[in-house]
Amino acid sequence: MRYFMTFSYDGSKYNGYQKQPSVKTVQGEIEKVLRKINSNKAITISASGRTDAGVHALNQKAHFDLNKDMDTNTLQNSINKLLPNDIYVKSIEKVSDDFHARYNVKAKEYIYKINMGEYNPIEKDYVYQYNKKLDVADMERAMKYLEGTHDFKSFTKAEEKYEDTVRTIIQTNLIRNMKDPYHITLSFFGTGFLRYMVRNIVGVLIEIGEGKRKSEDIIDIMDAKDRTVSGRTANPEGLYLKDVFY
Amino acid sequence: MRYFMTFSYDGSKYNGYQKQPSVKTVQGEIEKVLRKINSNKAITISASGRTDAGVHALNQKAHFDLNKDMDTNTLQNSINKLLPNDIYVKSIEKVSDDFHARYNVKAKEYIYKINMGEYNPIEKDYVYQYNKKLDVADMERAMKYLEGTHDFKSFTKAEEKYEDTVRTIIQTNLIRNMKDPYHITLSFFGTGFLRYMVRNIVGVLIEIGEGKRKSEDIIDIMDAKDRTVSGRTANPEGLYLKDVFY
Fold first, then answer.
1. Are B174 and B186 in contact (CB under 8 A)?
2. B151-210 pLDDT per residue, tens
3. What pLDDT is attached to residue A95?
């Protein structure tokens, strides 16, 4: 029986989503709990993709197989009771055996939060504390150049070996709340993302907001297909996997 | 030379504001830093009041004396460099020697944040996770009965010895954001607050929101001047000292 779950986590205390020996990871914590529920037999979960250390998820998705047919509400409650309080299963449903939480992904949305106001200790793990004003209109203009199908090679880790670095960003948005002009949220909705792609894009967008680069420079950066021409990788704490679509 | 500072902190990792032997407190951390700046001579800071374990501050205020006349920006930067990143000094100014950060308080504002939506691990230390709907209109009505000068004995810790438990709440507000109907913020602006007063008031407001008590019941609870007739103490993580006025 295949189960498909939606879960959220605070990534600040984890060495990323993906299981690794001898460090605390989100996958590791969930599999430890599932093992207990499964009469101490190991279970591997397959998520929509990994998130890096310090990155959060509002709606991460994963599937796993259990030999027993369980009521999904009971299963959800049992898992949540055993999980640490910084990981939470929001829902579980039964799916057919050929459904795969990674291979079947149609699109994902990431958001990146920036505080341009004063340093706020309460948000230190949840927002990138830039703490200075950025030219938001220039950043928004640059984001629009990213929409469409492009080779995003300049925005992935140079060492990553991808056969194909072409991806499609369907829509970008820069969200502001007029009651709080110091916080902005950048959203990226696309059919696929390369490793570090959003944080490397945000690194360039911040340089554009600082006036160090022009909005149009982002086109040249894409065209170069070279990681060394883009900017730094923006901090992980501002990044959230917001949703995954199938 | 007397200095007056405004600072914010994430209370989630502290045993409250007030210094205590052998546990981590906000005052203890700040005084440790000031001692380093003051050639290893101890300095005591006097804050506007204490906050309990897990409670946050957006604008806490305190004064302290230094034997040297320092530039306030330099002093602020030196302190922030040495403080842990969950405490932040927002500003420092010089004040006259007869100014006292506690005795001269004219009013304070506290806010209390509640999540009536789904449990969110990202906010677990920063919002009270009630995770069910509350009747917000009834709560707002009850808050209005608190405005004015009343004896708030029913809302303080029974063991606290106060000579006088009469306080004035100038204004209350229940703040909602139409884009996010699941989060509410209760604000209390008053000339003085008893220990646990806001959290004990919120405990009763939640029971009113649950329909277990009527809005008007809050008048009877005040009239009783008896802690046992009010409700439970609401969780600390939702509470913020928002501002102090002189």
1. yes
2. 999 999 877 788 899 999 999 999 998 888 999 999 999 999 999 999 999 999 999 999
3. 97
Decide if B121 and A58 are in contact by the 8 Å CB cutoff: no
| Chain B residue nearest residue A85, CA to CA | B121
Between CA A145 and CA A130 the distance in angstroms is 23
Interior CA angle at A205 toward A203 and A210, to 5°?
Answer: 100
> Rounded CA gap, B212 and B206, in Å?
9
Cα–Cα distance for residue pair B143/B186, rounded to 1 Å: 9
A43 and A125 in contact (C-beta within 8 Å)?
no
| CB-based contact B121 A90, cutoff 8 Å | no
Q: Are A101 and A46 in contact (CB under 8 A)?
A: yes
A159 has a pLDDT exceeding 80? no
The pTM assigned to this predicted structure is 0.93
Angle made by CA atoms B152, B153, B154, in degrees to the nearest 5:
90
Strands (E), A72-190: 87-95, 107-115, 128-129, 148-151, 166-177, 180-190
CB contact under 8 A, A9 and B121: yes
The question of whether B52 is a catalytic residue gets the answer yes
Query: Please, which residues bridge with residue B107 across strands?
Result: B245
Mutate which of B6, B122, B182 to disrupt the A interface (most A C-beta within 10 Å)?
A: B122
Ordered structural domains, chain B, with CATH: 2-95 (3.30.70.580), 107-245 (3.30.70.660)
